[in-house]
Structures are given as C-alpha cells and as structure tokens.
From TrEMBL:
InterPro entries: LytR/CpsA/Psr_CW_biosynth, LytR_CpsA_psr. Residues 100-244 form the Cell envelope-related transcriptional attenuator domain. Gene3D superfamilies: LCP protein. Pfam families: LytR_cpsA_psr. Coiled coil: none annotated. This is LCP family protein. Belongs to the LytR/CpsA/Psr (LCP) family.
C-alpha cells in the first residue's frame, strides 16, 4: 500500500509542474499576440517614424548637393499628390567618349493612384535636336546641351511637358545596388559580350539576387537589339525601385543617396523628394509600373544607323501621356505591351 501511494505521489508531481509552466506560457503568447496586433495596426505610423529618423534629415542634405537647375529655370512647383513627369537619363560615360544619354525614359507619376508610367525612347531615335537646328540621334542632345537640351528635345518630340529630370552616371550604379543588398532580375540565359570591340562582361542566369557589378553588366550589355537593351533598363529600374521601397531598406536610404553623390543631378528640390518618398512608404503597396517603348524601324543614313520612330505610334503615345498627366483622368490609357511581352519571352 505504501509503495503504491509513493508511486502515485511520484506520478502526480509532473502534472502539477506542467500546470504551473502553462500559465506563464499562455500569458507570454497572449502578450505577443497583442503586441503583434498593435504592430500591424500602427505599422504605417512606425514606418513614418523610421523614415523620419533614418532618412529625411541626411537625405535632404545630400540631395541639396545634387540639385542642378535647368539653365536659369527654377523647378516647377508641384504638389507631391499631383501627377508629374520626370525625364530619367542614364549617362554611360566612358573614357574618351562624350556624355551621351544611353538611357532615356519619360516617366509619369500619379501619386494618388500609386501608379508610374515608364516610356522608353530609343537612344538612336532620329529627331530634331532643339537648340542645334539639326536632326540626329536623340542621345546626342545631352552631349551637346546637357539636361536643358535633352528636356527641350523630348518635349518637342512627345508634345508633353517635362516637369523634372534626374540624370545618373552608370559609374554610381554598382555601389548603389550593393547598398540595398542587390536586386532581383529575370535573367533566364547567360549574358555575355563576345565581340572584341565591346568590354568583357558575363552575367550568370537564374540567380536569386544580382549584385551591383552584375546589374551594371545587365544594363550595359550591347550584343542584341536596342529594343531589348532598353527593356532591360526599365526592368532594372523597376527591380531597384521594388528593392529600395522595402521597409528593411529604410535605414540604407542615406547611404544610397551619399553613394550617388556627384553621379546624380536633378532639378527636384530636396523637400519635394523627401515628401514624395515618405508618401510612397506610407502606401499599402509598392507602385504599379506600366512600361512602353516607342516603336519604329532602323535605317542607315550616310553609313550611320538610326531609329525612325513611327508617326502613328507617336500619336498614340502623346495621347497616353496626356491622359496620365491629367489629374481628372478616371480611365487611363494603359500601354499595350503584348509585343514587348512576346519579345521578352523569346530573349530571356
């Protein structure tokens, strides 16, 4: 009898102990659930606080140094909630070469709709270069008259205004990409320059993340069509934007701006950029990006290859831009990207 009692007593002890540790565990889980719920409810407020702590101050100082007016013109006054246009210029200056704009993207931002239109203009497009009274490749405008001539030429071509410009030298791209931990790129086949006249580069396919050097090679690759090269530029821009807008990269924004440094110029005032960036971070999702490239056909003139733009396509694009810039537009003209999707499927 005593042995059975002792055995029963021994068996009951763990039950009592188990009951004791259950209480603090339940309390702890309850606290975590409550804190998690509060974190979700106040997520935007926390993001705003983090942005103001880590980004706005130092970013504003760095952007002030990158400001460069267009001639004697001050930047237009635009509310960061209104649609506005930006001419994005990628300057790929190499040794003993003029500073031509290898990437020319006319973009429209609609902050209220959280939408962005990226319209690529092929660098070899044959058009009037405003200020020189000649017709030539559009990328020569920046080489002869920097941002002002590039803006005037694009406005003449598209018959729509350019509110702002942002020019970045590709020399700064490598470190900027590394600062945000690399980018995701949809590379399905190895990319490699094989011609002797081009710099050697190689990018391995199907990697989850690509570093700055690989991203630079991705946008610089020349040994296919200008159509595909321009499409890669837009793909990279979208990938970098998605990466930079991740909340975990908030603290890296000052480093990104500092790295850009002398490689970046714009006529956007720092207050405008900071307010706009904060508004982006406060959205429930990243911006929806729509892409399009001006269409045309290649043609040789005096031994030089040019890209003749389609007049029908120009008319279509001009109307599309106008609808995006109109704050009262309820039904945007969305770009038809079927041809681009088919080309991407064939080349990736």
């Amino acid at each position: 009898m005593m042995e059975n009692s002792a055995a029963n007593l021994t068996r009951r002890k763990p039950k009592k102990s188990k009951k004791n540790w259950k209480k603090p565990l339940i309390i702890t889980l309850s606290i975590l659930i409550v804190l998690g719920g509060l974190g979700f409810i106040f997520q935007k407020e926390l993001v705003r606080l983090a942005f103001n702590m880590f980004a706005s101050g130092t970013v504003k100082e760095a952007l002030d140094k990158s400001y460069k007016a267009v001639g004697n013109e001050e930047a237009p006054v635009v509310e960061h909630t209104d649609p506005f246009s930006i001419l994005l210029l990628g300057i790929d200056q190499r040794d003993n070469e003029p500073s031509r704009s290898d990437t020319i993207i006319y973009s429209v931002v609609r902050p209220e709709d959280n939408k962005v239109l990226l319209l690529s203009i092929p660098r070899d497009s044959y058009t009037e270069i405003v200020g020189r009274d000649v017709k030539s490749k559009i990328n020569s405008a920046y080489a002869h008259g920097e941002a002002k001539m590039a803006i005037d030429t694009v406005e003449k071509l598209l018959e729509n205004k350019v509110d702002f410009y942002a020019a970045i030298n590709f020399h700064g791209l490598k470190d900027i990409v590394d600062a945000v931990g690399g980018v995701e790129l949809p590379i399905k086949k190895n990319i490699e320059n094989k011609l002797k006249i081009h710099e050697k580069l190689f990018v391995e396919a199907n990697k989850p993340i690509y570093n700055g050097e690989e991203a630079l090679a991705y946008v610089r690759y020349r040994e296919d069509s200008d159509f595909n090269r321009t499409m890669r530029h837009r793909i990279f821009l979208s990938a970098f934007m998605n990466r930079a807008l991740e909340v975990k990269n908030l603290t890296k924004i000052p480093d990104v701006i500092k790295i850009a440094g002398s490689n970046f110029t714009t006529n956007m005032k720092s207050d405008f950029i900071v307010d706009f960036a904060e508004a982006l971070y406060m959205k429930d999702s990243i911006p929806t990006i729509s892409n399009y490239m001006l269409k045309g056909d290649g043609k040789m003139r005096s031994g030089t290859w040019y890209y003749d733009l389609s007049e029908d396509d120009l008319t279509y694009v001009r109307g599309m831009i106008a609808s995006w810039l109109d704050p009262n537009t309820t039904q945007l003209i969305e770009p038809d990207t079927k041809d681009e999707a088919d080309t991407a499927a064939e080349t990736n």
